[in-house]
Amino acid sequence: CKWSLVRIQSPRLAKGRSFRSGPFNFMSTFYILYSPSLDHYYVGHTSELMEERLRKHLSGHKRWTARAKDWAVVYQELHPDKGAAYRREREVKAWKSRKRIKELIEAATP
């Protein structure tokens, strides 16, 4: 598999340390969120810490995800740079298939 899968749970970080420090400095994340109240998946990518990006989605900004406050990260992949994460986002969005997205998530869930 050419994509690097990361578990959904975030690693516990030492106080004052960033996940992006050291060898992860330029990593970007492709992610899928799910909202039970909307029964909808949201596909995106970020160079921020995933926890910070999710906080922004939940904070009521004036974007599509502002429609619900119950978004949860259900899938994520680390990529070496923002371009690679963006290409993966475009690939998954091009599927236009909820079924394929669910299969991707289920295949990664232990």
- What order do the helices and strands follow? EEEHEHH
Strand order across the largest sheet: 1-4-2-3
**Beta-strand percentage?**
15-25%
Figure out the total of helices: 3
- The number of E-state strands comes to 4
Q: Can you summarize the main beta sheet?
A: 4 strands, antiparallel
Q: Which residues sit in consecutive blocks of at least 5 with pLDDT less than 50?
A: 1-24
* Measured distance between first and last alpha carbons: 17 Å
How does this structure look, described?
The chain is of the alpha+beta class and 110 residues long. The chain has 3 helices and 4 strands; from the N terminus they run βββαβαα. The chain is 31% helix and 24% strand. Strands 1-4-2-3 form a 4-stranded antiparallel sheet, with helices on both faces. It starts with a strand and ends with a helix.
Task: Describe the structure using short key phrases.
110 residues, alpha+beta, four-stranded antiparallel beta sheet, 3 helices, 31% helix, 24% strand, globular, disordered N terminus
Give a topology summary.
Elements: E1 4-6, E2 28-35, E3 40-46, H1 50-58, E4 72-79, H2 82-95, H3 98-108
Antiparallel strand pairs: 1-4, 2-3, 2-4
